[in-house]
UniProtKB/TrEMBL annotation:
This is Penicillin-binding protein. One of its GO terms (biological process) is proteolysis. It comes from Streptomyces argyrophylli. The keyword Glycosyltransferase applies. PANTHER family: BINDING PROTEIN TRANSPEPTIDASE, PUTATIVE-RELATED, PEPTIDOGLYCAN GLYCOSYLTRANSFERASE. In the N-terminal section; belongs to the glycosyltransferase 51 family.
């Protein structure tokens, strides 16, 4: 009786609606109708069809698919691209009088009322396809908000009132064919499939236009209860429901009884396809690049003024994103990574390639695959990028930072022939000028020492030889001469920033690469040298279109902003210096043969990280190797099946860079640098030895300096932060740092900056090549 009363109320309301909401009120039912009509009239008559959430397709720069991502797997199609069998089947089982009634089927309401009264419950509903479409609109607008979804589906008279009014509006504006098309595109068919095209692909691996009779009947039957009639998990129940739909089609004359009977005898014929969603499915090993693209959409204001607006754009989908990813470069990067570092190794590698002069990211990969299964060595942390873009806290770049110091010096007027004594061992010069009129001071009572990698490395040296051999003491003397601030300013102009978002510390040790950076940052910085001094912000997206109805609308995308970081003369000078590193210095194993290249090696103290960053005139790339958790030192270690007593920047990252860039550049024009004439040093230096390293004895002699290097000294900004050794102990994904295993006197950590007294250091022995 309660159900009957509810349906009676609805039918009275329906009658009023059909009469134009203008009937006079009389008696109890009239008053009820009047109250309902008043509420009905207060509902805004401006329902708009929501932008249906559907899959987003991410493409490389050649237009080839990288991945599809979606919050709801849906592909919107026109009615002409949906099988006529499917159209008839859904109408037959959900609203057989669809083409005869208006927005509300009063006859259907009375039939349902009678049927339910006989059954003593709700055996039959009365909603038309149009009303169901409206309800699905509300659900679609609710998105993934459980509260809004509950409101959109609650069984109340108030919701029915809204549903009825909007149904009338839709019938008037859209017409039957468009309503049917929208309904088939919005409805949930189970198994993560929204809309008939996704459902057809999910269950039968075919397009909706190719569905036959029995397949159409199966899909139409699922709609009423996707979980109950799921053919994947309950074939018997799904078959029974399919046959019900076939019989109903026969009763309505859509098909003959013979056709229905023949179809009933056929198996379900499932040919399922697993949903392919997210960056985990990305081709060419581009899962991390795919995730970077997602981060760009979610964080760049060009895609929406608020975080919520950007998230809505991404979740709604329907986007086609053409990216900067070069398939040739990406394949080469992944192949080189796979050859040199195994995913199960104790350490990992990450590599990035960018295009000088445009900022376009051409490749991005790492040895540990994209995913959530830790047992399979998977991770979702992008080791190539900064923390705010899905990466970690970064890694000390070591001596790969030295060219930035050289650029600052040359830009400020220092000639590349500038010579310093460059002894094997020295204390940090003090005081050293810093930014904003501040001055860095070492502890005068216990001045900190630093060393070069080998005792045989002692000057005097000029810049060319000091760069080729990666002489620590030369670069500390250089930064002490020109001051810290020019180096900080040059780094900013080149887009160099800490991966954790903090400010670069103002201490002489920055010359030895103590500030944690990401491979993308370093690759893009070196691209500034390659483009003769023009820095361009990195970009990953070339264009975005959004499907609106049957049309595609172009959306604005982030553009690279280019600015001059240094003169062409300065950039060419640095390129000349770094060309010598590859030809005659620590980076010889990274050479590209007849193709001109330039670059710099870097190995942090205790060998927690090793780098090679280099470039040609048309591509720049960075390779980092290390333990993301900063626990495994790279001594007595096997990487990629090759044992190493010690890992050097030129020995492991160098060959990875060489093979990666060789493949990426294959078929590309061979371009040369604009070199400058730098006279050879008059002081003959010793052989740089094995890339970035020295002997074990050499390392032991520098142990004390390396351990305490960055812990002694003075801040320039009055803030007490950690200190690190020159090229030494580095940032990890968690941002932790090793603790010295020696006891320190009470006032051991100190320093002065214009009277300030808090320690963050300048570095010790580190700065390995």
């Amino acid at each position: 009786m309660q159900q009957a009363a509810k349906f009676l109320g609805v039918s009275v309301l329906a009658g009023a609606v059909m009469a134009g909401i203008a009937l006079p009120a009389a008696g109890a039912l009239g008053l009820a109708a009047k109250g309902s009509v008043q509420g009905f009239d207060e509902i805004p008559a401006n329902l708009k069809s929501p932008q249906l959430s559907q899959r987003t397709t991410i493409l490389d720069n050649q237009g080839k698919q990288i991945a599809t991502v979606y919050s709801r797997d849906r592909t919107v199609v026109d009615l002409k691209d949906i099988s006529p069998y499917m159209q008839k089947a859904i109408v037959a089982i959900e609203d057989s009088r669809f083409y005869q009634h208006g927005a509300v089927d009063l006859k259907g309401v009375l039939r349902a009322l009678n049927k339910n009264a006989q059954e003593g419950g709700v055996a039959q509903g009365a909603s038309t396809l149009t009303q169901q479409l409206v309800k699905n609109y509300f659900i679609e607008e609710a998105g993934d908000d459980p509260t809004k979804v509950a409101e959109a589906t609650q069984q109340t008279l108030g919701r029915k009132i809204r549903e009825l009014k909007y149904a009338i509006q839709i019938e008037d504006k859209l017409g039957k064919k468009k309503i049917l098309e929208n309904y088939l595109n919005i409805t949930f068919f189970g198994e993560q499939a929204y809309g008939v095209e996704a459902a057809s692909q999910r269950y039968f691996s075919k397009h909706a236009k190719d569905l036959n009779l029995q397949e159409s009947a199966l899909l139409a039957g699922i709609v009423q209860s996707p979980s109950r009639y799921d053919p994947v998990n309950d074939e018997a129940e799904a078959t029974k429901r399919r046959n019900t739909v076939l019989q109903r089609m026969a009763e309505l004359g859509d098909i003959s009884q013979k056709e229905a009977d023949q179809a009933k005898e056929k198996p379900l014929g499932l040919h399922t396809s697993r949903p392919k969603n997210g960056c985990i499915t990305a081709a060419k090993g581009a899962g991390f690049f795919c995730d970077y693209v997602r981060q760009v959409v979610l964080t760049d204001p060009v895609f929406g003024k608020t975080k919520e607006a950007r998230a809505k754009l991404w979740n709604r989908g329907g986007l086609t994103i053409r990216t900067t990813l070069d398939p040739q470069a990406q394949r080469s990067a992944q192949a080189s990574i796979k050859d040199h570092v195994y995913k199960s190794d104790a350490v990992a590698t990450a590599a990035t390639i960018v295009e000088p002069g445009t900022g376009k990211i051409l490749a991005m990969g790492q040895s540990r695959p994209y995913g959530v299964n830790v047992k399979d060595d998977e991770t979702t942390i992008n080791l190539s990028v900064n923390g705010d873009m899905g990466g970690g806290a970064g890694y000390q770049p070591g001596s790969t930072f030295k060219p930035i110091v050289a650029a600052a010096a040359v830009e400020g007027g220092k000639p590349p022939t500038q010579e310093y004594s460059s002894p094997y061992e020295m204390t940090y010069p003090s005081p050293v000028s810093a930014c904003d009129g501040k001055t860095w001071h070492d502890d005068p009572n216990k001045p900190t020492k630093l060393t070069n990698e080998n005792e045989s490395e002692h000057g005097p040296y000029a810049m060319k030889e000091a760069t080729a051999k990666s002489v620590n003491t030369y670069y500390v003397q250089l930064i002490s001469d020109i001051g810290i601030c020019p180096v900080i300013d040059m780094a900013k102009k080149m887009g160099v920033q800490r991966a954790d978002g903090r400010q670069i510390q103002q201490a002489p040790s920055i010359a030895l690469g103590t500030q944690e950076m990401s491979p993308l940052t370093m690759a893009n910085a070196y691209a500034t040298f390659a483009s003769r001094g023009m820095y361009c912000t990195p970009v990953a997206i070339e264009s975005v279109t959004k499907k609106v109805g049957s049309e595609r609308k172009s959306l604005p995308v982030p553009k690279s902003t280019c600015s001059r970081a240094m003169s062409e003369q300065t950039a060419d000078t640095v390129s000349t210096l770094l060309k010598g590193v590859v030809e005659d210095g620590t980076g010889q194993e990274a050479g590209l043969g007849s193709r001109p290249s330039a670059g710099k090696t870097g190995t942090t103290d205790e060998r927690f990280a090793a780098w090679f960053v280099g470039y040609t005139p048309n591509m720049a790339g960075a390779v980092w190797v290390g333990d993301p958790q900063h626990k495994r030192k790279m001594t007595n270690i096997t990487i990629g099946g090759v044992p190493h007593d010690k890992v050097y920047g030129g020995e492991v990252p160098g060959p990875i860079w060489r093979d990666m860039m060789s493949g990426a550049l294959e078929g590309k024009p061979v371009e040369d640098f604009h070199l400058v004439d730098i006279p050879d040093d008059t002081h003959e230096g010793d052989d740089p030895g094995k890339g970035d390293g020295g002997t074990e004895d050499d390392n032991n002699r520098a142990t004390t300096g390396r351990l305490i290097g960055g812990l002694i000294g003075g801040p320039t900004d009055g803030g007490a932060t950690h200190g690190t050794t020159g090229d030494a102990t580095g940032g990890t994904l968690g941002g932790t740092f090793p603790t010295p295993t020696i006891s320190l006197p009470g006032n051991f950590i100190q320093g002065q900056v214009n009277g300030g007294n808090n320690g963050h250091g300048h570095g010790g022995a580190g700065g390995r090549r």
